Amino acid sequence: MKTTGIHHVAIICSDYQRSKIFYVEVLGFSIIQETFRAERNSYKLDLRVGENAQIELFSFPNPPQRSSSPEACGLRHLAFQVDDIEQTVDYLNSKGLEVETIRIDEITGKKFTFFKDPDNLPLEIYEN
């Protein structure tokens, strides 16, 4: 098997409108397509992240809770690449988001930090 990249990451949210505002208006991802699936009483929002990646944001009635602890089995976190981490942290703080202290990756020497989405999903920003 030969892959050419990651196409998308799927996220199920608890409050569709709140998460849509967060990912579109706060993080600045552009909408590719928004679909309401009446038979499932569910929205699917396709978002453009950078040049080649996407997030599929899903809503479902009463989704079960899932542990979002960084060391829990399963997806650990979602990381976004940025050019200027300090500027990005300042922007996120201006939007009322709590961002952890910037750290240095001991392997790559690059700066990174974490914040959370409306459902407490850990999100990372990682400097180029």
UniProtKB/TrEMBL annotation:
InterPro entries: Fosfomycin_Res_Enzymes (IPR051332), Glyas_Bleomycin-R_OHBP_Dase (IPR029068), Glyas_Fos-R_dOase_dom (IPR004360), VOC_core (IPR037523), YwkD-like_dom (IPR037478). GO terms for molecular function: metal ion binding. Gene3D superfamilies: 2,3-Dihydroxybiphenyl 1,2-Dioxygenase, domain 1. Keywords: Metal-binding. Residues 5-128 form the VOC domain. This is VOC family protein. The lineage of its organism: Bacteria, Bacillati, Cyanobacteriota, Cyanophyceae, Nostocales.
